[in-house]
Amino acid sequence: MNRRDLFRYSALAASLPLMAGTRLKAAQSSSRNPLLSQSNQLGWLDTTEPRAACGYTWGQPWSQGSLNADDRLQLVSEAGQPLPLQTWVTATWPDGSVKWTGHATAAGQALGQKFQVEKIDPKNRAPKAKHAIKITESDKKIVIDTGVIRCVVNTQGEVIIDEITRAKKTLLQNARFIGQRQNQAETDGEQPLQIEHFSAQIKQADIEQRGPLRAVVKLSGIHRTENGREWLPFSLRLYFYAGGDAVRISHNFIFDGDEQRDFIRALGLRFDVPQRDETYNRHVRFVGEGSGLWAESPQGITGLRRDPGQAVREAQINGIATPALNTWDKRVSERLQFIPVWNDYSLAQLNAKGFSIKKRTKAGHAWIDADQGGRASGVAYIGGASGGVLFGMRDFWQLHPTQIDIRNAGTATAQATLWIWSPDAAPMDLRFYHDGMGMDSYAKQLEGLEITYEDYEPGFGSPQGIARSSDFTLYALDATPSRERCIELADSIRAPAQIIAAPQTYLDAGIFGGLWSLPDRSTPIKKILEDRLDWSINFYQQQVDQRHWYGFWNYGDVMHTYDADRHVWRYDVGGFAWDNSELSPDLWLWYSFLRSGDARAFRLAEAMTRHNRDVDIYHLGRFAGLGTRHNVQHWGCSAKQLRISTAAYRRFHYFLTADERTGDVLWEVAEADKQLVNLLPTRKVNPSAAADKNTHIGIGTDWGSAAANWLTAWERSGDVRYKTWLENAMRVIGSNDLGFFAKGYHFDIKSKTMRVIPADPLTSGEPKRVSHLNAVFGLIEICAELIQLIDVPEFKAAWLRYGRFYSAPAAQQTAEFGVSLTGNNLTNAHSRLTAYVAQQTGDAELAKRAWSEFFREANHVPEVKRVEGPLVLNPVDEAAWVSTNDSAQWGLAAIQNLALIGNALKK
């Protein structure tokens, strides 16, 4: 650093606490998980062992050569007790050794705050669980026995779960997914509103895991309307843990309808709950915010004119069986028929700020308002003192409009429905938000891009092929849970516990290119950078909440750019609205988690992955395998590209959590590069390339994305053809004199071979324009892994040359190429390219240059001001200088520069 940099950042260090205030200090204290201070240690993302003690699944990395596929493993609790463990391989290193494993535990086991996975001596027996999963199959049914509950799953038809029994008592029946569609968004007075019911139909069933501790059943199919129309393909997985009393359901559907006439009015999971207890011994529970609980009986016996007795009242309030009826005060027991039985209940969460609860005695009679609250947990119970079902949905209020309905609670069979899309809300409207405004040619569309940053093209704003996932949990209980137990189980549903490894473990394993280090505040300047990294995570966490970045299709994404005049993010301005992974915020958040174990970073990154893997990617149709560039609507932009759907952003979540849905999407995009022959990303600005008989692949946003897809498929499957595609491409790039400075290459989508495009020299005498976007969609990170895994010296040389000269002084560029470069902006972001070269070559002067490039731009003091009414609707914290592009790329540059050349920062 030069003296000016040191002076400026010394001043920044002095002013930072005053400008950032207490929020930044709070962020600093929570950025590291204190339980994970040692390598090879496991713990809880949220630091505390959950009270529900259900089964858990997670992913764990291994350094190359440290674990073989036939090695046996066990879990060792904090108390030193060996515990059974189910293990499967999710990725391997090039030498065949294990790179990532997935693990599962049995339910009901105490792990402690800190624990670890160990190899078992071949001479010793593996510890056994008290219960083991048992599966039996027939032509039409799969029966899963956890040792506590027995679940009968259908392999065809409408009903997904026939029944769940516990101690031979049926607690749940006829679980199925149902919905309604209507032919228009609202009644227009010209056409009658037509409402049609539909239900899921199972077409295929697969047992993906058979235990002994975890079983996974995947069901796939379509939805069928009353008129026989088949639409909305779906897949779902049912998860079971040995010794567990719960079934978790992960449901995903793809929209393949006509957005002009197919409006989903309702969609949800419905099941029946047999009722055996007297109506006054039955109970309904709704979990609100935190430990808030709404708890009543269908036939209340408190607050009456006559008192049945304190013991009777306390029993009903506590959810246990009341004393025998003949012990009650007769003035009550002889008049029970005159106490109303409330059969129906409904909790509706139509926005992120409020829910309401209502009930009625039966259909045909008025609903009575019961209560209201802010953010419901999406968890309810229906049953009696002798048993029932506690059920719920993850991210319930975040994914509004949602709803829970309970019907017929006073009859022999109650019915519960968890609505993914509430029937009380307006129908789902996926139509494009404007009429095109006359942009019927590429020239006009490029003009539109100049003003709103929206890349519009007629017909390209289609939602056909987008998807969304929802997670449900069904607990089959042998009694009404206590109020405290309701909250414990609700915690396991609304924010599922996650086991993670110590940051040092991730680092030592050498995964994801090793482009990070642990947080280090050992010098003033490093402390400034670490505090700023913490501040950014904290700021976006606040913005999600303050700006209400919630809703069924939106939750998980963040906005792109801020509008300081209106004091809002530009939610309605073309390409400045939803970010859709633009410039890699996913990578920034995941690397932030890896280095710190920070729960805030993980939750932001996981929500973003769950959103982007479903909503921002097309899963069927003409754009299948491609993602959509940032826009007012997630599917609205006409730029359908590999750079959005790339596995580079989602592989973190899969390997860290072993989440099968994310794994599905990684396979979907494994050969998404085939779409390059159908849809050239540069078709509007380079018509000649679009007319070329050869398929064109850009070196950065295209090939880098495809390389991430191939790399992920290779390490997951071990299939050498993926390695061959990578290695061949690396040799072509490395043998080209232009290397990564080339605009692109000819590409054969069948063989995956690349060829150099002739007549692309750096010899015109004029500055050579290069793309500033090539490296900022994961190319830097993927190239670091490729160099680590595949030995192609010419590829490494080409990459080092790109890193050395991209931001080099013009004189050095001219000496190398004969011309200087232009268009090579985002200097701060690309400083990590320079840093990588410095680290690989040991060039101290280049390390200094990298830090100079890093400090040249986007290094704002994190100033935040409070903005209140009447300037805004709600009070908000504003940092008008923040953009998600800069936040993501600054964060990645800071993290990687600290890891690569942190020793060059002396003060």
TrEMBL record:
It holds the Pfam family PcRGLX_2nd. Keywords: Signal. Residues 496-905 form the PcRGLX/YetA-like C-terminal alpha/alpha toroid domain. InterPro entries: PcRGLX/YetA-like (IPR045793), PcRGLX/YetA_2nd (IPR048330), PcRGLX/YetA_3rd (IPR048331), PcRGLX_1st (IPR048329). Residues 133-490 form the PcRGLX/YetA-like central beta-sandwich domain. The keyword Signal applies. Residues 39-119 form the PcRGLX/YetA-like N-terminal RIFT barrel domain. Transmembrane segments: none annotated. Residues 1-20 form the signal peptide. This is Tat pathway signal sequence domain protein. It comes from Cellvibrio fontiphilus.
